[in-house]
Specification:
six-stranded parallel sheet; 10 helices; binds adenosine-5'-triphosphate; binds magnesium ion
Amino acid sequence: MATDEIARSRRLAVMGGTFDPIHFAHLLIAEDVRRRFRLPRVLFMPSGQPPHKDERAVTSAEERYIMALLATSDNPHFEVSRLEIDRPGPSYTIDTLRALKSELGEGAQLYFVTGADAVLEILTWRQPDAILDEATLVAVHRPGFDLARLDETLGARRASKITVIEAALANISSTMIRELAARGESIRYLTPRPVIDYIHKHRLYRRDEVAPEPLEETTA
Ligand code: ATP
Ligand code: MG
């Protein structure tokens, strides 16, 4: 399939996340969903100001976007969208799905991909039922989260609209990478090499950074 055909395709998966940083489990899941549903493209959608993650200062949207670009640059079927990071204020999935649909026009078919932890929290998102109407929700198993609880957590009606798939399991999280990087430990094999290089070059997540000395105040 030619690159411009891929870019025009109206059947696509959307993979939302903070991506702080993007890692191999994200890529593995995206590729699995793409193959399984024969989708020409997957749109990675780094969040702007994440509504559920205000307890910690996240890496700038621009840096998270760049890392997503670096991680996906070798796959012609992967794209990174600026839609959420260019939108001021918190991003809500329902707004994103509707914006994409109106951009793509008639015939758009969206698959929204989430890990098990995220889908189990979907009732805390804005307009969960509208999300289920706008897109096919694909929930992917994740170590430590039990998708057997989907029915009791969301109710049978909602759960029946969700497609559960078992991608190759990888117990990787961005939290794990941030913690390793903070301690100066190896993050090899957890995310693609260009992302590792970027993290090192920009000293992201380092805790041991000594804050610059404050300029001496004049007391005169
Ligand atoms: P953090 O530790 O900062 O929460 P994360 O690894 O969970 O990071 P996110 O950006 O929060 O990554 O997740 C984006 C999406 O990818 C979510 O739907 C999440 O459930 C899914 N995901 C992330 N890691 C995995 C994994 N190892 N297995 C399955 N799904 C995953
Ligand atoms: Mg997460």
